[in-house]
Fold these 2 entries.
Entry 1:
Amino acid sequence: MARFRDPPHPLFRRLNASIPFDLRLGPYDVQQSIAHAQALRSAGILDDVELSRIEEGLKTVAGELDGGSFPVHEEDEDVHMAIERRLIELAGPVGGKLHTGRSRNDQVATDVALYVRDHAALGIELTHAVAARLIELAERHSDWAMPGYTHLQRAQPVYLGHHLLAYFWMLHRDALRFEAVRGMSREMPLGSGALAGMNWALDREAVARELGFDRAAANSLDAVSSRDGVFDYLAAAAICATHLSRLAAEIVLWSSEEFGFCEVAEEFSSGSSIMPQKKNPDAAELLRAKAPRIVAALTTVAGALHCLPLAYSKDLQEDKEALFDATDTLELCLEAADPLLAGLRFDRRRLATAAGDELLFATDIADLLVRKGMPFREAHGVVGGLVRAALERGKRLSELDRGELAEHSELLDDEYYDLLRPERSLESKVSAGGTSSERLAEQLEAARSALARLEAQTGR
Amino acid sequence: MARFRDPPHPLFRRLNASIPFDLRLGPYDVQQSIAHAQALRSAGILDDVELSRIEEGLKTVAGELDGGSFPVHEEDEDVHMAIERRLIELAGPVGGKLHTGRSRNDQVATDVALYVRDHAALGIELTHAVAARLIELAERHSDWAMPGYTHLQRAQPVYLGHHLLAYFWMLHRDALRFEAVRGMSREMPLGSGALAGMNWALDREAVARELGFDRAAANSLDAVSSRDGVFDYLAAAAICATHLSRLAAEIVLWSSEEFGFCEVAEEFSSGSSIMPQKKNPDAAELLRAKAPRIVAALTTVAGALHCLPLAYSKDLQEDKEALFDATDTLELCLEAADPLLAGLRFDRRRLATAAGDELLFATDIADLLVRKGMPFREAHGVVGGLVRAALERGKRLSELDRGELAEHSELLDDEYYDLLRPERSLESKVSAGGTSSERLAEQLEAARSALARLEAQTGR
Amino acid sequence: MARFRDPPHPLFRRLNASIPFDLRLGPYDVQQSIAHAQALRSAGILDDVELSRIEEGLKTVAGELDGGSFPVHEEDEDVHMAIERRLIELAGPVGGKLHTGRSRNDQVATDVALYVRDHAALGIELTHAVAARLIELAERHSDWAMPGYTHLQRAQPVYLGHHLLAYFWMLHRDALRFEAVRGMSREMPLGSGALAGMNWALDREAVARELGFDRAAANSLDAVSSRDGVFDYLAAAAICATHLSRLAAEIVLWSSEEFGFCEVAEEFSSGSSIMPQKKNPDAAELLRAKAPRIVAALTTVAGALHCLPLAYSKDLQEDKEALFDATDTLELCLEAADPLLAGLRFDRRRLATAAGDELLFATDIADLLVRKGMPFREAHGVVGGLVRAALERGKRLSELDRGELAEHSELLDDEYYDLLRPERSLESKVSAGGTSSERLAEQLEAARSALARLEAQTGR
Amino acid sequence: MARFRDPPHPLFRRLNASIPFDLRLGPYDVQQSIAHAQALRSAGILDDVELSRIEEGLKTVAGELDGGSFPVHEEDEDVHMAIERRLIELAGPVGGKLHTGRSRNDQVATDVALYVRDHAALGIELTHAVAARLIELAERHSDWAMPGYTHLQRAQPVYLGHHLLAYFWMLHRDALRFEAVRGMSREMPLGSGALAGMNWALDREAVARELGFDRAAANSLDAVSSRDGVFDYLAAAAICATHLSRLAAEIVLWSSEEFGFCEVAEEFSSGSSIMPQKKNPDAAELLRAKAPRIVAALTTVAGALHCLPLAYSKDLQEDKEALFDATDTLELCLEAADPLLAGLRFDRRRLATAAGDELLFATDIADLLVRKGMPFREAHGVVGGLVRAALERGKRLSELDRGELAEHSELLDDEYYDLLRPERSLESKVSAGGTSSERLAEQLEAARSALARLEAQTGR
């Protein structure tokens, strides 16, 4: 530009150029440029011939971007200037009319909004797929007993299907969150100009409709300064990644020889370079490991926004690599989670053996005492003493005889022995949301309905 | 408990005890305990006399908590055990019946859900108040010209009212986000037991209604393991705090002698211990400084959840101090922001002088050339050259004569000189969302409507 | 102050006041104030009588702080002003001379430097204690075989002592890091004034010596603006907390019924409010859970410093709560780690049984083939095939007969069977730093020496 | 491998493959492989011919990596396997002998240690260069008066040279931190095998010397599990980036029209796509904006390590992209900072005008009163009242007459008027580390000495 005499310093070029990463916004940039050109035509700034030459040029650019043949020049600072430069090469000086009534500031905010919207939609689709897979797995394992854990100590038996559905609800909430992100990205920045609006009364609402937004952004300064959409996406992504982290952590744990509850398919495992026997659940470890990275993408963007006066500052450019890395990472994780889950093989016998641990039924004994009139807090103490006695005598609970029971409470009768079976404990969890078969069947039905509602709501 | 022989190690007691911070959940704990007791009555586990003794005891506890006289004992591990212990002191052994059919795991998840719901509501209220204040300020300063900035360089003039409304829209989105958080906290964990459900078919839906939830959580394992509500609140709080950070950063900047655009009221300023002339905008600096802390609360919770198998693990206790610090911090910031903004005094003269910088009108000159048929990109170059020439000759743009203009373009006529006034530039920003008076009036109207809709929607 | 007419707004007072948390800096503030008063005496600004009245007043303040009787007033903004106010109450107007030649800016930076220095020293002491405990445990379990893991899959046997020493080296590096933090906090900010230095040529080097610093800070602007010491401490604390997280995660894992490798002492365990059988390793869970919180303290401080122009801004006040929370948290964790580790009871039998898993010796078989001339990569493939064959035939490796071995390689002879014992595998790890008994004895010796060097170096 | 029948799932391949990013470790991998091969020769595992064929092959690989012609195959999981695969292609089956006595676990830890060491050295070099540039700038502007700020309010005058040296000391500490990082990376993981050590007594100390380490790591489990070196580097990088953020934030601020203290060179500035007059300090904005990203790299690694049992888990692979992004980002920032600083043009007149603001001398007036015997706290109040009176009367301090002064204190005499000059105030800051010319000259000398010591110490 004529304002400048000196060319950029090579180090500044490297620091400043966003084209190595923002080129992927190219298709969005072309899409909005076509809509913008049409608005320029409607306002009489372009005539029909000019519009069609610009549209033709932009379509060529789109093809080049798609085919990987788009020529990037060393002096291209960003995708917006590169496309304009290429358009002028293709269409001649008329290409220079396209930037009438817009700025890179509203342009990039619009590209980012389109990107967020698309990836929020993809987030819905991919979490939905994993959620559907979890329902399927839960159905297949709805009557497989296993120990439920708290503090990684065996607590009470649950059905594996019940455990798997816990993750269904997490993923389902994630889908709802991505839907909310989509809802928060309904305002179009384009037409805000550099920061103050434009000298041209283009029909922003028409452009917004054309690009699939609900409306034009209400305040030009806010529109070019805000990265709320990125923030919203990253918050939803961070929660979702944390859910995957917990699911994957359990798969790693359950795949250990000590737990032996499941085995990851070979096609999702790796060997060792040195230990020939190894079959490692690498896929699960990686799903687990990605959460901090996605949280870090959020903190990067929050950090870049901190203290930043309005309107656009170059710091806002830091949104993109963080966002792109997060979408790439999360989407790959979700895509891989589906076949990873599908390929898991659970070991019914080992699960059942662990679920047969009689200490898991201690609460049921306490509740027996409650049914006989003892306050729960007191019953808890009685059974605690019983457990201690059994451990000290090296006996299982069922090996204590009536006399030993009577040392702890006269209320313990033969029903005591009947409680020491996983089926009995499982089926006694009759409260809504509990693990008993009937409740689990209801829950499966609720999960299927929730998924169907989600499909209807999000138009999938 | 009889399960244990050894008392807790003093260091373990210090590490483990949550009562120093979770005591503030006491009122929620009492509230849910009353609802739970009523459900126990409905199920026949308590009789009327027992229920009324428990209710009476809990009401006494509520009063003690409220009045600061609740007695905390050294061995009280957490608020739940402390309240049960106190209840038994007050009501006798019948108090020990209250814990029938529930666990601390679902109890604490319910307390936290109630806390999140209340503070999401408070978030709506407080952001609403700041947003309303911003509308009022924007109205009062709707025709005050000032320079808009990009890259902290003067860019184009805007009205101060327009600039202030940019923050209105941020705060308005924050209110919507808190509303979404409230929407995500509609499921009641209580009744999930330790992890697997309960041996008692209490009417969870009735309890949920009583406590203001929409429904009982669908999966007991998920219900006691999830901290999604905390995560959701913290994400909304982090964005909101980042908005305040940007607003406050501008107040600090504008309060500098160099900008001189505004002055913070004395009652929100501090002096220096050594420099008698100082009047520092401490309140604004503090509003600015809090954002990283709230983001850190989010990362603390995300970190604690990372890798965590189901169901409850003690790591989940790390949610509370982070959440409490975030609510306290954000709410105080929002409360203080309102009178801070109300007390700002803007300097119309200094704003106007800065807005009169003729370089701010360079885009308008380029658009003049566009109106005369020159492609924008070319016009941009022409005006860039003109700017450079003016700077090199030490002249203002209005000091260039027709001959000098003609060196750059024959199309520059007398209208050129007419463009070099802030009013002209401001009023030419006619696009929707732009800063011209008419558009700003529309925007003010839209802001008032949005606020009214929010009030209606959130029942304020 | 006379500069101000309006008193602080109540909300500003709440937002601004640091005394609720910085009161704990009081003893440091008194200490530096005495040194400063002596420097004022040396420069002739105070006479002997004035100095002794100020010293006497400050000693009274120190006593009040120590005894918890220091009176905090509502209008006390921070600990510095509170102590000065109290000094004037005690010593009369002469107390107002103390602030000659200093500012709160250099004063608070000095308090913080003293605090960091003390807590770095405490960090050394506490990590040293845990490290010493780990040596002791390692010695006691130096010949207990257990499986080593990669990817949470059994990999090769190691001695438990070897495994425990891995944590020794982590803690030892932590101690070295805290020593480095102490080294980075050797410059005294005091005497930098508000930002530009003082109008009085006090002997800063004498004050520095008095307060135990190496020298006075070289640049007054840097001295009041920097929080590098806090950053350094928090970085060291974050790594240390992450080491504890890994150690504690293993204790939680090993305490599970499935692993059964160790048991946490009752005095570091908790029961369940509902499940009478539970004995949960809460202490280990909490040690594990604290790392993200300490990392968050670091990001809080980094965030507050981001974009902050020189010199002091109020944002710097955000360093203190983050720092205090981190020191409190880490120090309690380290203190608790020592008795927690001391009270662990390992189960030799379960460890040995797991270490007897023959698949752990696959690498040794591959190395047998290497010793017979086969390239390792090829040997790895041969043994991989062997493992697969054994798994498919449902046999242990020792159950394959010579004929079956020959299907995979003619080189597999009777030595093969001899390799399938943990002792053989353990003792074959003869490389430096390996787990064989001789190497482990050397490592124990090296660990003891490292600890002794640390003691000598840090003057403990 | 024969252990596996099924090939990796395409999605697993994408999730698992590290070669897209770890290929840059190739040169380190070759370097350590050559040293390892020599150790295998010394131990008699390779003969001379085998060694020379392996060395030759590895040198070819090194050339291919260097020239960008190294062929990556789809099934190459990581750089280690790719190089081994290529070596076998080049050297035949003997290449398969190279992996004797090592594992990818110790191999990758060694690559990372070498990478950290090199980039710590580069960190020293680059911070040194910026520090040297700051000394040069400080010398050139050692007697340029400017206002020093606290709370972004003018506080007291300083010399620009003094202000610039504040950053010198920050960068100097950064260099010392990178030196400490180098010191913490002196132990070689190689030879630790998968986790337990090796079946071969290779001479690890000789390999360590060959690779420039001080010694072999003492514990094989720790060596393959630790990422402390990465953590240390990232902590140092995060502090350094935060220093650059503050420096750059000041450049952005000072480049505003309102401050007008400096101008960024054209070759480090960008224009606007729409506003022809714009010259934006993009380079400074980008330097500023990178700090949160580097802090996020630290939190990513800390997060991946959280809860991770020993020894190697795949989660550790998350260290590399975070580390590489941080080194690339920080090094480019430091490289660009040098010419950016060199090209800054300060405006002596505007700086001096701002430094002439008489309110900046209020502390000097208070100290005048102190010299006349008034306690400082009282003097502060007197001058505060004087300032208020001047502001209310719309007068400069020098415009108050003797009568008006006397209203505030009888001690204010003609010296009062003499104090109201920047030179007088500047030269009165005589304390060590203060801004007076003599002290600044000493400081410049100290800075030059510190730099020379650093050069000597780090062997530059």
Entry 2:
Amino acid sequence: MSRRTIGSVRTDLAIEAVEELQTQTDQVPPGVLMDQYQSFPGVHVTHVDVLDESAAQNMGKPIGTYITIESQALKKRNRTVQDRLSETLSSCLQKMLGKGSNDAPILVVGLGNENATPDALGPRVVNLLLVTRHIQEFVPEDLAGKLRSVAAISPGVLGTTGIESEEIIQGILSQIEVGAVVAIDALAAREVNRLFTTIQLTDTGIHPGAGVGNNRPPIDEKTLGVPVIALGIPSVVHAMTIASQSVGILIDKLRSSDPAYAQLGELGAAERGQMIQDALSPVVGDMVVTPKEIDLIMREAAQVVAKGINSAIHADWDEESIAEMMA
Amino acid sequence: MSRRTIGSVRTDLAIEAVEELQTQTDQVPPGVLMDQYQSFPGVHVTHVDVLDESAAQNMGKPIGTYITIESQALKKRNRTVQDRLSETLSSCLQKMLGKGSNDAPILVVGLGNENATPDALGPRVVNLLLVTRHIQEFVPEDLAGKLRSVAAISPGVLGTTGIESEEIIQGILSQIEVGAVVAIDALAAREVNRLFTTIQLTDTGIHPGAGVGNNRPPIDEKTLGVPVIALGIPSVVHAMTIASQSVGILIDKLRSSDPAYAQLGELGAAERGQMIQDALSPVVGDMVVTPKEIDLIMREAAQVVAKGINSAIHADWDEESIAEMMA
Amino acid sequence: MSRRTIGSVRTDLAIEAVEELQTQTDQVPPGVLMDQYQSFPGVHVTHVDVLDESAAQNMGKPIGTYITIESQALKKRNRTVQDRLSETLSSCLQKMLGKGSNDAPILVVGLGNENATPDALGPRVVNLLLVTRHIQEFVPEDLAGKLRSVAAISPGVLGTTGIESEEIIQGILSQIEVGAVVAIDALAAREVNRLFTTIQLTDTGIHPGAGVGNNRPPIDEKTLGVPVIALGIPSVVHAMTIASQSVGILIDKLRSSDPAYAQLGELGAAERGQMIQDALSPVVGDMVVTPKEIDLIMREAAQVVAKGINSAIHADWDEESIAEMMA
Amino acid sequence: MSRRTIGSVRTDLAIEAVEELQTQTDQVPPGVLMDQYQSFPGVHVTHVDVLDESAAQNMGKPIGTYITIESQALKKRNRTVQDRLSETLSSCLQKMLGKGSNDAPILVVGLGNENATPDALGPRVVNLLLVTRHIQEFVPEDLAGKLRSVAAISPGVLGTTGIESEEIIQGILSQIEVGAVVAIDALAAREVNRLFTTIQLTDTGIHPGAGVGNNRPPIDEKTLGVPVIALGIPSVVHAMTIASQSVGILIDKLRSSDPAYAQLGELGAAERGQMIQDALSPVVGDMVVTPKEIDLIMREAAQVVAKGINSAIHADWDEESIAEMMA
């Protein structure tokens, strides 16, 4: 789980960064293109393009494309909508992958800690993928070259391996041919209602701690030399974010209810942010906010993502004939 | 996980209820006795006795004894202090159990949902207990009557069984002889720094939703007809609680920093509570705050509790000779 | 996991008991009716009716009906056939349940140990059921009485609870109204190719250790006072069984290959069984034979069974509208 | 899990290969040195040195040292003996590591599939290690150079990653400095009583399928360029092995009981092996034999191994001060 900070609140989602800037200026920030549509009833897709360096600075997000797929289906355990979500994810991912050569082997990387549920999205998805790199030689001749080669790895987290994920991936790329990397990671959101309702796809890769003085290496096309698509679902809001938002909401409420509280508005955002940080940080520490039934929801989320990836990559195949071949 | 409410914040801990009242009046509430000591360096024990009905109303806790054992050992993974914690728990539990006959069979009940990590304390502890009811007949004759009979069950939660835990326990008591019940449950705290740093023991049993209009049946001596000791560790703070506290802390800070904010103090606690509830409830919903590494910490917590219970109940035995006999 | 013995080999499957007797006499045993059909391509159903006490003695199985559903789908991870398997299971179960009143509440019991994978079928299925007993009051009025009331429990195993499952079920029946019990359990087979390819349904309940000097109480209509349907899937073959079979196969092979070995045939089955028991029991002990990927296969098996039960019980409902109501 | 074959039975244990040869010739095979002692009551240590290529061919094991530590403690859950086992493992491992430079960083590799219990030893051990490579810069100055640098990875299995473990390890070695590799893996034994009672350490690395026409790359000093110590515990016996042994035992029994069966002895071992293979292979297939409580025993085994490795590598440190530093 990487993270970044806007004011005092952290988000990994480009769409939340846009919304934050929009609340301040009432318009889409300069240098940013935004486009929205429904792929299915109940499934909303938003494209955000960060066009230049100035917009990137402003957003706290690198230049590139960010696709957000939104739906309540994961949380509500609605299978029908979950299948539509997988299908939407599949077609968005195909478009991003399509920029590279179509038959290059793909390496899917499941970032995060399998043994810490809120951080386990990546490894759980990897466990559900149809991996085919090692069975290429068993593909019947008339189909040769049609079953896309996929490898997958869950490199673990720095705290339990002592090795940066980026180092492990670099190492694998030094040994095997890879055309593109798809990196899966659990994300941190700013809004509680984003938890398990949003999937973000981006061609900018993963930038841990961008802008927060964190020197951990990015996992992107520049460092790895091949296209890197990052795919994530927010699973936590930092408790500090909740604390900070609560204060903001109450201040707004007080100001609108009684002119005597008008002066609260004079507190600048930055100043307020610092005061909140100082006051609350010792109280809420490193805690995270999650749904209590996170074990169950995470399982459903992993299934939806894995189904979307399998279908995007092995578009011309059905799962059963692959399973048969691997048996 | 049961819960109750103080102002707008929920706590299952008697010690937090006392603290809340103390901050208002600067003294231990009337009808409440409180006693504190260290059992070991780094392990603090507090006895709270709620003596009469008026104190019980005031505290929102039934008449009875509440023992709180506090230590940073669970979170810090310090084995040495964890062992001291188990030992302290063991001797506190022995004292509470001692009120009943010493050789009566004990039923340990692991409340909560094994498949939702923050709620899994009870079932995890049950999995680690030395259960002996079924091997009484194999005990060597010279030791007969010395190995205490222990049974244990994890009844599941209403949402997955459709049956109240209390009904299942009642049912078991109708079939087998039981001298006392020890009920283990994950708790909700008000303060983040209570999470996995506090063990509460009480002879009042478990009262789900006492005072919050919740009609679920209590699990206590009155309903079951045998003494019921409840043992819990706080594993979550409700996100609503964090939100509410944050606001309180900032208001205090503002008031003390600038006389212009003095009027904020005029907002009564109840009024403030309602305003916070209205404003924040849609934002934070049913979310809970937990440590991100909860999977790991929960495992350590279950081990400490199980070790304490095993040692309290099978005081004259070592684990290995029991394990040998059960093999 | 219960078990019984035929000669020196153990099986929980009525169909294997019939087959054993058939190999000796080349015909269906007297007092036994047998009927076979395909419900779908790749899904075979066999009804075995044990009609009288003499047949029951002969078979080592109580008088009653045994339905066996066979398919390679669980092991081969073929979703299409898995769905047909669920559908077949659903209609067989409905017929058995239909003998009782249609609207009586059902208690599903998941026998076995959740934390020992080969024994975890029951608890895993229970975790996937749509339990409705506690939401009856929330059913919209026009649908009242149409959503069947279902409760479910995983009572654990004697070794970890110290209480017989039968005692726990009796206890629950003393507290809540139940029209029928469906008991799920992992079974032991005699043939390796039965593992995870067979589902057995029977109206005779569960008889742990019938005929092997085991005094554990049965879970059946006679003890509980309500109809008890047992549903199981074989997940292990006892290593002793494999050992014994291997010897039998080799002896047959030797005899048919060389007349000099003819005398081996003179060794009676019982004598041979005892010799094998004496020689091999110290070597193979209590070990069980399972597929190496049992964790994965068990998950699929639990899903197929849960889907079949949900569909049999809530025939007029779809999963989503129930999930919506429970949210 | 790698494997090799002796006659028709597979073993990964050098000590079983020696025993097999000893039963044929009644002496330690030429070119093999063998030495035995007790490190503690109940803990037996055997050194087997394979000295030359002819002995290696004979044994089916590469030239090198094999240390076997034997004890019933893992299966019997005896903590006291488990601690002695960890201590013995620690000192044996220190000796093997000592051949290399003492302060070189160590990479521990957990081979096998975390999600298939019998194959999960490696990943489970990795999860319990004290990994320090990433905290070297935080070590207090006066202790600098004294906390040994350890990294660890669970590369997954070919079937779920599509990448050979050897490729992943090679990749990591291309990125980070490593002085020695310790590779943990679950093993296959020939004798059931070896399951979870034996730890094997060897400086020859891992040779999957040596001698069985399997071309998977070895993980050893020759391929990796640094010393590779392999550490394993047998968790399965192949069902085929059990079948084959059973036949052998019965034949021996028959021959010794009745001269009429003497001719059975004329069946040569190879011939008998082939006949058994042909007759039984369709029956027992790819099944494995394990203890039914494997989930529990595997957990204990992983703890014992992890404790031994942690203690061997961080000899001058206690766990708590490392944990403190990492917090």
